Amino acid sequence: MHNDGKKKIINAARHIISEHGIQGATIRTIAEEAGLSTGAIYHYYSSKEAILYDVMDEGLSATQRIATLSLTGNKELEEIVIEIYTSLKERLQKTEENRLQFYLAHEAMVGNNEIQSKFKEKYNDWVSRLEDIFVSTYGAKPGRLTRATAAWIMAAIDGMMLQTLLQTEVSEIEDIMKVVEYLLHDGIPHFYQVLAEKEES
After folding, report:
1. Which tens digit of pLDDT belongs to each residue from 88-129?
2. pLDDT over threshold 90, residue 2
3. Residue 75 carries which DSSP code?
4. The dihedral formed by the CA atoms of 9, 12, 18 and 20, expressed in degrees to the nearest 10
5. Contact 129, 67 (CB under 8 A)
């Protein structure tokens, strides 16, 4: 029952955001959309930001799914690469979830300790799952530099999302995705080969 209530609230918040933007998603409007009292909302969530975090989290959960796929060993390299490529392309189009991520990141940076703690946990999870993908897909040796590589790539994804949201149009999406394709097929495997050689020498 607890999960049903949270799901109803998340769906209501997602609808409000799609219709009225982040600023329109208040506890009151979310409660009205969900058919609940504001008191009922606080039974599940301590703040509006906590609700928005869950909306964002649901929308940006592809890394966990791909990591699980890669760790089962039932998928060929090419299948995993296609999954990664497709999820990155879809991520570029998740405008509301990406706006939420940067809105909440701002809240964390200006002192919202609850959201900051959630982001710390989430980024640790995202980077760990990305590292899992690299280890299982490309045969990379787990270690500090493998994790650091995953952190750098996660930062690159965040940066690309920000450029997309700002509509900087510094490069065509087709060209960006072509670079992603080359990196997934050739760049990352070659990098891990170089990394292994450097670590051994």
Report:
1. 888 888 888 889 899 999 999 999 999 999 999 999 988 998
2. no
3. S
4. -100
5. yes
